[in-house]
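Researcher: Last one for today. Full complex below.
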Amino acid sequence: MIIFDKVTKKFPLGNFGLNEISFEINDNEFVFLVGPSGAGKTTIIKLIIKETNISSGSIIIDNEDISSSNYKNKAQLRQKIGVIFQDFKILYEKNIFENIALACQIKNFSYSATKEKVKKALEMVGLLEKEKVFPIQLSAGELQRVAIARAIVDDRKYLLADEPTGNLDPKTSWEIMKIFKKLENKKTIIIATHNNDIVNSFQKRVITLKNGKIIKDKRKGGYEI
Amino acid sequence: MKEIFKSIKRTPYQSLAGFLVLFFSFFLSLIILFSLSLANGILNYLETKPQVTVYFQPKTPENQIFKIRDELSQSGKTLSIKYISQKEAFEIYKNLNKDNPLLLEMISSDIFPPSLEIFAKKPYFLPEIAEYLKKQPDIDEVQFQKDIVDKLLTFTNVLRKISFIFFGYLIIMSIIVLTTTISFKIALKKDEIELLRLLGATNSYIRKPFLKESLFMGFIASIFSFLILLGLIFYLNPFLKYYFFEISEISFDFNFIKIIIWPFNFLFISLIFLFVLFFSCFISIVSTYLATNKYLKV
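Model: Here's the assembly. Have a good evening.
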């Protein structure tokens, strides 16, 4: 469970990334974060993975307060969270298998266990035959599938996606979203997106942000700003 | 190993620069250590020789000599004092000249002076002991290897001081160059490190490949420098044998363990190898820690 309690993120120049926002996300919930650019969607994701610190308030994940800037269990926290970025963050000198295996290697899984898990993840995203291929040979949509495979390969509890379809054409975007659909009810999924068609069709919880504040939080919502 | 070679291949010039600096540092350190050990060993050897020999007038009564001997023993500056009577001196003379009967004719023990052979605890007590003896009555002559011991003491002290400064310089230089080399490699792997951090890799996991690579480079550099020193030792061995032909053993005590330096032996050479390995590990670990540290802060 993720709890944001009156969280404020103030940037060094004095502008607010988030301004006293509060919400709770239950386990296995599917949530869209929507809002215009600069609304605070990415800031929420960054705060959850502790890539940046809050200015005030508190964030609790699985009953653990991660608010402190001196929070020590950052690595353990991040090992529970799979993150998917708009720019994929794929390593081009490693092949697809090696890219996905990274998530398992940092948890010290054996090679055979890693191999099995990578195959399963590749099967899930429909890239089973491409494990030996290098990223340069893949399309943007395929690269995003690799990023998803890496995020789910070691059964992480949370899946955060920051504009996962931002660089993709509509058809590919739908294919990517179908993968998220398959993961529904198995993981807590938080997707920050601008794609109103996708948000409207999923009919899931939508948290709408504007200028760092939550303006709407609907259980079965659509894209409304 | 595969990862290490891959990384070296990706940055061959940086790796070579790091290796050459490590090799240079380790080789110089070994030369210094070797010279310092030998100088200390020679000093120890000289300390085991009779250091002050005092000759008394032939007619000096024994109780007078024993009184001086006892006073010196109580000073705490001597290891042992050996009394050589006129008769013993005559026996030594006879023994030394047994092949030349002419030299033994017409000589009796009366002409030989009684003497004391004094072994000092430390070489710097020698002048004090000699000064004390010169002030005593019935002294004929005081002999001690002042010049040799003084020169060796000065040389060893200077060598020790220079070695410390030089060691410090070598350590700092090696760490800076290796840190810079690793930083280059880290810069090339910046994206990977960032991704690993986001995936939840611990700091030690991220450091591990860089540490492995610098330990590998340090190990290879230490092997090379050790092998060259070994070659040098074998090359110098005949010359040293010629210079040290009278010396059966040169050694020094290290924490109550006697380490024999000369003749060169397996233990001494193994200790030198262990030293250079330890030195390389120290430099590799510190450099990797410094280079990776700034990339591991959020």
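Residues 2-47+150-293 of chain B form one domain. DSSP finds ten helices and six strands in chain B.
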